[in-house]
Specification:
The protein is of the alpha/beta class and about 350 residues long. It contains three helices and eleven strands; from the N terminus they run αβββββββαββββα. Strands 1-2-3-4-5-6-7-8-9-10-11 form an eleven-stranded mixed sheet, with no helix packed on it. A hairpin with a 2-residue loop joins strand 1 and strand 2. The chain starts with a helix and ends with a helix.
């Protein structure tokens, strides 16, 4: 009986200690879990605090870039590294003009649509690859300048910027197409598409009713549309460094045109009808393989050899005066060929 009592006592003690050990372990596990949860909450709060302070610092830095120019609030950042724009920028929606140049900016943020007061968006000389579709919500935007970037595609939503008057997308290299909806830009007056990869003048550009100034130089244009005269208000047309081999006769019906630059193309002739373009003041045919070799007569007398000719600009070789002389010479030669043909035909008839 004594042995049984001893065994029972030992079992009770063992059970008691096991119970205490288990309870202690559970308490330790619970404390560990609480510490872990506190650490997670503390870390999240710490990160949130860091994020808040970063936003405040970025906003303060942006506010230092604000200037007032001509009564307009301008955000100006130049030659600093801003590859992206922080979301806290939406707190400055009263800004009317962005001037962000040479910052390495890679993307126009989608929250650009929040800036309903924006009149000018100038992001020239950065690394922007895309115009976001949200741009179409800026119905009051007047100028969009994206020259010297890497834009390859113009979204049709850009045509919703109904107030746009000036658009510059020069030197984006791979850009070769515009959406047909582009013709909806009824107020667009100034368009720069130079140094891209266009092979033809887009019909949607020809259909722009208010267009006055167009630069398509440095592309791969091979021809101009026959109905180019639809551009009724165009006064300046830059077409240098393309691959044009001929000009359509209807170019002579562009009644508002006063500046036409055609240097460095593959033109063989000048349409005779261009002689009647009374408003054309400046034209340049330099570096074209024209069929006729025409040179302007020298106006200087012997006593003026050492003097500067004040009319040099007006008489620039391959300019307006050259164009008229070339057309007259071409007409003379055409008449001469025609007369020769008539004489030969008369001689043939007489011999029979």
């Amino acid at each position: 009986m004594v042995g049984v009592a001893v065994c029972s006592s030992i079992s009770s003690v063992k059970a008691l200690w096991e119970s205490r050990i288990k309870r202690k372990k559970e308490e330790q596990d619970e404390e560990e879990e609480q510490r872990r949860r506190r650490a997670v909450r503390g870390g999240a709060t710490g990160r949130l605090s860091v994020g808040v302070w970063e936003d405040r610092a970025s906003l303060a830095r942006l506010q230092q870039k604000l200037q007032t120019e001509d009564g307009r609030l301008v955000l100006r950042i130049e030659q600093e590294e801003w590859k992206s724009l922080p979301g806290c920028l939406v707190q400055l929606t009263q800004v009317q003009e962005w001037q962000i140049h040479r910052t390495g900016l890679l993307k126009i943020p989608h929250f650009i649509s929040s800036f309903q007061n924006l009149l000018v968006l100038d992001l020239s000389r950065n690394g922007v690859t895309e115009i976001p579709r949200e741009i179409g919500k800026l119905t009051g935007l007047r100028e969009l300048l994206l020259s010297y970037n890497r834009v390859q595609f113009v979204p049709e939503e850009l045509s919703c910027c109904e107030s746009l008057e000036r658009l510059e997308i020069a030197m984006n290299r791979d850009l070769d197409h515009l959406p047909d909806q582009f013709r909806k830009l009824k107020k667009l007056q100034h368009l720069d598409l130079s140094m891209n990869d266009f092979t033809c003048l887009p019909d949607c550009v020809v259909g722009l009713p208010a267009l006055e100034w167009l630069d398509m130089g440095g592309n791969r244009l091979q021809h101009l549309p026959e109905d180019i005269h639809r551009m009724e208000k165009l006064h300046t047309l830059w077409l240098q460094r393309n691959e044009l081999e001929r000009l359509p006769d209807n170019i002579s019906r562009m009644d508002s045109l006063d500046t036409l630059v055609l240097s460095c193309n593959r033109l063989r002739d000048i349409p005779s009808l261009m002689e009647d373009m009374s408003k054309l003041r400046f034209v340049n045919f330099r570096d074209n393989p024209l069929t006729l070799d025409v040179a302007l007569p020298c106006r200087k007398t012997k006593g003026e050899e050492d003097e500067e000719d004040e009319e040099d600009d007006d008489r620039e070789m391959f300019g307006q005066e050259f164009m008229k002389m070339y057309i007259q010479e071409a007409r003379k030669r055409a008449y001469a060929v025609l007369n020769m043909h008539c004489v030969n035909q008369s001689n043939d008839e007489a011999s029979h």
